[in-house]
Amino acid sequence: MITLKEIIKLLKDDNNFHEIIVDGDYFWDFDKSVKFSALSYDSRKTDKETLFFAKGLNFKKEFLTGLSAPFYLSELDYEVEIPAIIVSDVKKAMSLIAQAFYDYPQNKLKTLALTGTKGKTTSAYFAKAILDAMNGGKTALLSTAQTSLDGKTFFKSELTTPESLDLLRMMHEAVENGMTHLVMEVSSQAYKTERVYGLTFDVGVFLNLSPDHIGPIEHPTIEDYFYCKRQLIHHSRYFVANSEMLHFNTIQQEIGDLPHAFYGKFSDNQIIKSDKLHFELEGAITGEFDIRLIGRFNQENALAAALATKALGASVDNIRTGLAKAIVPGRMELLTAKNGAHIYVDYAHNGISLENLVEVVEAHHTGKLVLILGATGNKGESRRKDFGNVIENHPRLDTILTTDDSNREDPQKIANEIASYITRKVDFEMNREYAIKTAISNVSTADDAVIIAGKGTDKFQLKDGKREPYIGDTEAAEKYL
Ligand SMILES: CC(=O)N[C@H]1[C@@H](OP(=O)(O)OP(=O)(O)OC[C@H]2O[C@@H](n3ccc(=O)[nH]c3=O)[C@H](O)[C@@H]2O)O[C@H](CO)[C@@H](O)[C@@H]1O[C@H](C)C(=O)N[C@@H](C)C(=O)N[C@H](CCC(=O)O)C(=O)O
Ligand SMILES: Nc1ncnc2c1ncn2[C@@H]1O[C@H](COP(=O)(O)OP(=O)(O)OP(=O)(O)O)[C@@H](O)[C@H]1O
């Protein structure tokens, strides 16, 4: 429940209030005792007690026709009969109003937020496992892959970082469920679109940076992408950053006096020994640790999660127990075919993650390597060239180009674009399940491997703006083992 009076105060304090318009009259103060028992940004989900937020590029005036909500809040006066609260920035307003509506759940949770181009989800699962070992399973999780508001049941997430109304509702639900900690991913888009406006996290983590998410609906330039991500520094009480990342100097300057821990080559916290599933740390955390995911980059993710959770009170024992248990859906999932060949299902869907994935698998398999890969449509267009270059630079790969969320584009055209950067022969099979079947039938010994990259645990293919059911990479692979 929130009153209109409280809302006006919140907006005025944030310099975000224009006026209230009722029947064409403008009000700077409006003292009628209006209360809202629900918040919504979807006109189809409103009732007589809902405050409706009119926002977004695709918002249309007709969504207000017949709306039962008593007020709408917007940057634009749509000149309709429904009273309006006009603001400078609707997304900032959404976040602040939601915080008050849900009684500031962020103050009732210890929060850990992760950003970076790659490894957010993996590190988030690692951090949850460590915190669970410390607090007895009371860690909520908001990740790209899945969300858990009770620490033990999971559902598929819509976005990496939810819209503020959803985020605050979920944080509130986590508190109601007795959670003491929240681990969440904060995307660059979250800062760009003010989904986390006004929130300060107990610990923030910056894992790495590489060019990605640049395109018409994401960021115009890498400068914008990096700037948005760096906002996490200014909204964290403690910061963990990778000293080996691109533009680390900027991060270091921006952190200034904020309490922090750095990890990697140019810092005190390092991986000093690294085997397949075992590594040794030196620095603020010392000792030997096991994880279930191969690849040095996953050990770096583990180190970041360890430093971040240590700042929240986790002991070395909690860290060791948590890391040894953590599994991450669709990240480096390993299946073994009847003939012994290994099938890796991994969410790698940009250049840097594909490069890492291929390097790791190459290091462990001397035989035949088959890669199955596609690239998304209407999003991350630059990945096509990056993928082509990775494949070109790894001549051992036999590649089958396929569909991956082609959306409104033709998957074959996307595949052709990837192939245009490769000088040797590649195969094409736009039916992803069939591509997986073909790849598995092409490997025959334990020295061989199939890499299925891009979709991880996704059970859908994005087609013409809609999610169409898809069997899932792991399930498809299991069918043909
Ligand atoms: C730029 C951005 O923040 N986009 C998100 C945002 O869209 P928007 O605010 O522009 O809204 P819109 O899609 O134009 O729709 C207009 C509004 O009309 C409403 N509506 C619609 C129909 C109707 O009858 N009545 C009505 O009221 C809708 O509920 C919506 O509020 O709000 C929508 C939900 O309301 C999201 O689905 C959408 O995510 C877009 C599609 C998306 O996929 N974004 C990606 C790029 C993203 O954010 N990715 C990052 C991950 C990046 C990373 O991995 O680093 C993420 O955090 O997920
Ligand atoms: N630290 C890392 N550096 C480079 N690549 C990584 C790293 N961690 C994971 N990866 C690769 O990136 C893929 C995606 O990992 P993960 O889902 O943890 O990252 P993410 O940041 O959440 O990605 P996205 O933003 O695309 O959802 C993994 O499947 C793996 O191949």
UniProtKB/TrEMBL annotation:
Its EC number is 6.3.2.-. Carboxylation is probably crucial for Mg(2+) binding and, consequently, for the gamma-phosphate positioning of ATP. ATP binds at G116, T117, K118, G119, K120, T121, T122. Keywords: ATP-binding, Cell cycle, Cell division, Cell shape, Cell wall biogenesis/degradation, Cytoplasm, Ligase, Magnesium, Nucleotide-binding, Peptidoglycan synthesis. Residues 330-456 form the Mur ligase C-terminal domain. Belongs to the MurCDEF family. MurE subfamily. This is UDP-N-acetylmuramyl-tripeptide synthetase.
